[in-house]
Amino acid sequence: MRLIVLLAVLVLSACQVTTGPARVPTPQSAPSAPPVSQDVRNRFDSVVRRVGPVAVALCEARTRGRDCRFRIIVDTRPGQQPNAYQTENRNGRPIIVFTRSLVTQARNTDELAFILGHEAAHHILGHIPKSRTNAAQGAIVGAVLAGALGIEGAGADAITRQTATIAQRSYSKEFELQADALGTVIAARAGYNPVRGAAFFTRIPDPGDRFLGTHPPNAERIATVRRVAAGL
What we know:
single chain; 232 residues; alpha/beta; five-stranded mixed sheet
């Protein structure tokens, strides 16, 4: 299986796509919380074993030249909020990180499977390179705007950073819904119930529909999962 699972550092929740080089915490860089129970480890491990190969197969089928060797890590550092995110190392290898609190707070394997499928979907859909491109284009617009206004130095840098952020965030909600849709397919193909898994959204704060927010409303995400699942 082309999937490497590191359970030595044993994660889950609100999603994030990290665009910079991967900086994955390790037990050597920070103290670890008390070990999780064997039941939780077994549950998470079983989800990875079933969802991982499905994600790899879809990645290889839908992409060309993209590294599909997902590396899944659990951040065991104490005090981390429930979270999961996808990033890449410097060579483009996808890394999915779950926090320990997310793994332990997930109510069932369907939630774990859906979240894992969602994060894998970000990589399959190329959201990190797309986010970088959007930010770069926004930075160019900012540089042109600063030049037109005669602004130089720190002022120009601030405008460039702001327009880059705006451009990057303008598509973030769309990316999340796309990952929800493909994550639904991944979880279902692995034998899990993605609609039951998406119930996770009912227990996290609703981001609403804020201007330049990074996540769509929870109700919209649940509706996306139900729509896609109904067509499978």
